[in-house]
Design a protein that fits this description.
single chain, about 625 residues, mainly beta, Immunoglobulin-like, 6-stranded mixed β-sheet, 61 strands, about 50% strand
Length: about 625
């Protein structure tokens, strides 16, 4: 609840008890505790981070009790008050959240100024050059701004809780030199809303914002208008619980979707996180706070890598508010910090800042004492590492390499540890990537990685490795060949496939050849024509090569020759292959090739011996020569 209007809720809400809620807390550090009195301020209101320094405003305290501007190192060192608001007609009081451009800080105050309606101011980040740019006047001027400014080029844009033509608040712009204040829209309550309290959001030339009241249902609106003041429209009317109701802070943008919170509404009337398209469509409550969670979300959300971060003013297990995260899809709600005591502070309020794995923010009360009577704290929360790229599931062929990789934005990673099937620690696998040189069926399963920092640990989603064993395929077919009977021959084939491959050569398609279990089939003296093929198998299938046809050309082998002196004839005995065509030739003249004459022909039916007699040599004195051929 905004400090100016509803501080009385703080003590009451602190007494509400919350049931236990699983916490994903990181390392919490109280960087600075305000005393609640004296010169260092009280009730801090949001933080700005610039060049490693935190800048903030405290709504109360300081030398005159009207609030301060301060600067603090992100390590908690170097606190300095850089301006004390004095509440006089020349200055403001009760400053709101800050905005920064270059080396200049800009802001508004709820009160003070010449008319008591607040001011717009600027100041150098080094603490010099404070000046009031504008004193809010009476209506139709804006009055009592409760929100920080936004800056584009040389123009400041803001809202006021009251003022405008109808006293219901306004949207305004003003040059950064304090000139040309223009009321872009004056609220009328119904139907356009009333009493904006949150910072505007600028997207291109369109401003987006919320009103805490008014609209057609009386529970606030979300609106948009151009930076020149044209095109004002309500893009959503909030209504009564269990719907979302009463948005008191500004909107955040991720893609084309707006995200915001309402302090009431939802299933327990404890507040909501909602989404809304920039065109006004797609409204949905993505999280309703319950009685065992936080209550009264009062900081604009910070969007980062599909996560939203914010705070609630009250409840949680310590009763003093929480820091939470939730996915932009509404999944994964988690409490990152429960505020419980004076040392950590209580009732976090105002804009948080996310940088380098740290959340920086302020708590409205608390400090170094044993009670919550202090002036508030500035805190730092080191988050558990944020996994931005989950390891992806893979389907890999048996024997091929594989790897899983996780991506994390946090720069202070301490360690990675990979696990197999949820809880089997993989020794030595302590990097962002896990590699497999050659996967097997034993590697199939789910892989997760736990990424740890000093702020805690995050576990990735499971990446499933599926190992497939494809059936074998023939990659090299054996080649047919023609050889002479008794010559050597080698057939070669090759195959690919998953897992172990087994080879078997076959004769005539289906007759296994004993011992022929490699990728080559060799014969030192081949004499068996026919079809030879290689069959390869693995655990899931088989493949057979095309047959290689072996043609064996017969070569007659002379066994004996006998000359019969009585008849004067020669008798020959020789052997050859079945199916071979064999001829006996004779000549009496080696000079003339045509003199050779076939004197006998035989086609062998089976492997065997053929005997033939040349009777034409009887009682001849001429030299007679013989040769055999096939064919």
């Amino acid at each position: 609840m905004k400090n100016k209007r509803a501080g009385f809720f703080t003590g009451f809400l602190a007494c509400l008890l919350a049931a236990a809620l699983t916490s994903h807390a990181g390392v919490f550090t109280n960087l600075y505790s305000f005393s609640g009195s004296g010169g260092d301020g009280a009730s801090p209101n949001g933080l700005l981070l610039n060049n490693g320094l935190l800048y903030g405003a405290a709504q109360q305290g300081g030398s005159s009790g009207n609030g301060i501007l301060y600067r603090l190192g992100t390590n908690g060192a170097g606190f300095a008050t850089i301006h004390n608001f004095d509440g006089t007609p020349t200055d403001g009081s009760s400053p709101n959240e800050l905005a920064q451009a270059g080396d200049m800080i800009y802001g508004t105050t709820f009160g003070g100024g010449t008319n008591g309606n607040g001011v717009i101011f600027k100041m150098n980040t080094n603490g010099s050059g404070y000046s009031v740019l504008y004193h809010f006047m009476s209506s139709p001027d804006p009055q009592f701004s409760e929100a920080g400014l936004i800056i584009k080029d040389a123009t400041l844009y803001g809202t006021s809780y009251a003022g405008g033509s109808n006293g219901m608040g306004a949207v305004f712009k003003i040059d950064t030199n304090g000139a040309n204040l223009v009321v872009l829209h004056s609220f009328t309550n119904n139907p356009d809303g009333a009493h904006p309290q949150g910072r505007l959001l600028l997207n291109g030339t369109t401003l987006y914002g919320t009103t805490a009241d008014g609209g057609s249902n009386g529970f606030g609106t979300a609106f948009k208008l151009s930076t020149n003041g044209t095109g004002y429209s309500v893009i959503y009317h909030f209504s009564n619980s269990p719907a979302a109701m009463t948005p008191q802070v500004g909107l955040s943008l991720a893609g084309n979707t707006l995200y915001g919170v309402t302090i009431f509404g939802g299933i327990s009337n404890s507040g909501t996180v909602f989404q809304l398209g920039t065109n006004g469509t797609g409204f949905a409550i993505i999280h309703s706070f319950t009685n065992n969670e936080g209550y009264l979300p009062e900081s604009a959300l910070v969007a980062n890598n599909n996560l939203l971060y914010g705070t609630t003013l009250s409840r949680g297990t310590g009763g003093r508010g929480i820091i939470f995260q939730v996915g932009t899809n509404g999944a994964g709600f988690a409490v990152l910090k429960n505020f419980t005591n004076a040392l950590s502070g209580g009732n976090p309020e105002g804009q948080i800042n996310l940088n380098g794995g740290f959340i920086y923010g302020v708590a409205n009360v608390g400090g170094p004492s044993n009670t919550l009577g202090g002036g508030g704290t500035v805190y730092q929360l080191l988050l558990a590492p944020l996994i931005t790229a989950q390891p992806q599931s893979l389907i890999v062929t048996n024997g091929d390499p594989a790897s899983f990789t996780v991506g994390v934005t946090d720069e202070s990673i301490v360690s990675y540890q990979w696990y197999f099937n949820t809880n089997t620690l993989l020794a030595g696998q302590t990097g962002a990537t896990i590699n497999f040189g050659s996967v097997s069926n034993g590697n199939a399963g789910a892989y997760t990685v736990v990424v740890s920092t000093d702020g805690g640990s995050s576990t990735s989603g499971p990446a499933v490795l599926t190992v497939v064993t494809p059936p074998p395929t023939i990659t090299l077919q054996p080649l047919s060949a023609t050889i002479t009977n008794g010559s050597s021959i080698t057939f070669t084939s090759a195959a690919a496939g998953g897992g172990a491959l087994f080879y078997q050569w076959l004769y005539q398609t289906n007759l296994p050849i004993t011992g022929a279990t490699g990728t080559s089939l060799a014969f030192a003296t081949a004499n068996q024509p026919g079809a030879y093929s290689m069959k390869v198998t693995n655990s899931v299938g088989a493949a057979t090569s095309t047959p290689a046809i072996l043609t064996v050309v017969g070569r007659p082998l002379l066994l004996s020759s006998t000359f019969d002196r009585v008849s004067g004839s020669f008798a020959f005995s020789y052997v050859n292959l079945a199916g071979s065509t064999n001829r006996l030739w004779a000549t009496t003249n080696l000079i003339i090739p045509a003199a050779w004459r076939a004197i006998a022909t035989n086609i062998m039916v089976t492997n065997g011996i053929w005997q033939v007699t040349d009777t034409n040599t009887a009682r001849t004195n001429n030299l007679r020569l013989y040769r055999f051929s096939s064919p």
